[in-house]
Design brief:
The structure is a homodimer. The first copy, chain A, has 8 helices and 10 strands. By secondary structure, chain A is an alpha+beta fold. The first copy, chain A, has 2 domains: 64 residues, Winged helix-like DNA-binding domain superfamily/Winged helix DNA-binding domain (Arc Repressor Mutant, subunit A, Orthogonal Bundle); 159 residues, 3-Layer(aba) Sandwich (Chorismate lyase). Strand 7 of chain A pairs antiparallel with strand 10 of chain B, so a sheet runs across the interface. The structure holds a DNA duplex.
DNA sequence: GAGTGGTCTAGACCACGGG
DNA sequence: CCGTGGTCTAGACCACTCT
């Protein structure tokens, strides 16, 4: 009957899900790799295939795994599609989606501010790496953003961001640091463009910008990145589906 | 084996779901009313309880029905909680949620503009009812919004919005007109406050405001309301969960 | 106690992907 | 061809709600 770790009064499938998520977070199946089949896992845990299926289906709904008939179940992996549809909600007038190109302005390390420390749940005095960049859509500068991550979690990020341009930052977090971003919380406000932002985005000072304050979380629900973006919404809008 | 209406190559549970949704949309079970039990419906359609359960569970995920152990399955009904958590995403600094009070400024009927006609999928020359109102949170004026609906779908809305203040507009759509809003799409931009908005919201002209362009849909996926809100984000932010 | 939805099981068959 | 996940079934038992 496959005893777990102790008495647990949640449904079986929910316990199985927690165990599988734990193994996933521990790196037992790196992003993109196949998990054992349903039947194998069911046998391993001593439960029916139906129970195991319910656990895996919920994990798929949370985008922790990818399931495909005839192929198998795979640990979630970042892709351009995922960045585009899950994490980049600024779309063009006609609704078309496109990932922006990025130009890094600055990249430096320093002591976390009180705000950064709290949001990223860091120890007092921890070192963070900050990236300032401008992002372009169809040749136009549209976004001005400042990204903050823990230097301990992402060492040498400065050097990495210099050369590579092809992939998104989240691809790099996953590929080079083994950190997969699965969820994010965004807080939106309207703000006035500062003098510098106005210059970078080719607008006038005081022009209204959409501020996106994003905290990104890894599979363990720990915050791993703080990103504050100021976006010109002259030719784009932020799409939010309420359902 | 319970023939449906014709040859259909989707999975059984998906066909059942479509049939149940259709009956729900037709008003067979008004908001809040109980549907027959799983066993009864399974027998009616000649499928197993498991298949029927899968259909109902998906409908619950889409918030078309409410299911509670020991009680039954109920047609979705609007509630303060639903308005608050599904449709009102402007929250206070400390993350607390609260529904705003509304003060109607104007309410009039007229010919739909080209934009309104397209968004609401109306015939050319259709009549619409428009409401202008200011909404307050904790005594402060925070939102300035213009609402447009089809007059044919919501007759006499002008008279209705005059007196009643207790409930939300969506409660009224449901209670008086039998229209349940189940989904919405919002497009967000940063805009500058007009002179009038600045006055109403007690800000200076040109101050940055968050524009929310919302289209609300009924259970049949038809657009039933257009709402453009201009929000002061001095003491509130728009919360968007990306998962 | 009777009735509801929730969990769990075991097994059959189907659809898909790849050798 | 085999192995994978997807569908469908039938039945047992549990947890919750109301009378």
């Amino acid at each position: 009957m496959g005893e777990a770790t102790g008495p647990d009064f949640r449904p079986l499938y929910s316990q199985i899900k927690a165990l599988l998520t734990q193994r996933l977070a521990a790196g037992e199946w790196p992003p993109g790799q196949a998990l054992p089949s349903e039947t194998a896992l069911a046998q391993e845990y001593g439960v029916s295939q139906g129970t195991l299926r319910k656990a895996l289906n919920e994990m798929e709904a949370e985008r922790l795994v990818d399931r495909r008939q005839g192929k198998g179940t795979f640990a979630a992996k970042h892709s351009a599609a995922r960045s585009l549809f899950q994490f980049f909600l600024l779309v063009g007038e006609n609704g078309e989606r496109q990932l922006p190109e990025s130009r890094t302005l600055e990249c430096s390390a320093g002591k976390a501010t009180r705000d950064e420390q709290e949001v990223l749940e860091l120890d007092a005095g921890a070192t963070v790496t900050r990236i300032m960049r401008v992002r372009h859509l169809k040749g136009r500068p549209v976004i001005c953003e400042r990204i903050t991550v823990s230097t301990a979690l992402f060492p040498d990020l400065q050097r990495c961001t210099a050369g590579e341009v092809t992939n998104t930052l989240y691809d790099m977090y996953e590929g080079r640091y083994g950190v997969t971003v699965v969820r994010a919380r965004e807080r939106l406000r309207a703000v006035a463009a500062s003098e510098r932002e106005a210059e970078l985005l080719e607008l006038s000072t005081g022009a209204p910008l959409l501020e996106i304050h994003r905290v990104a979380f890894n599979i363990n629900k720990h915050p791993v990145e703080l990103r504050i973006s100021h976006c010109s919404t002259a030719h784009h809008y932020y799409l939010s589906e309420l359902d």
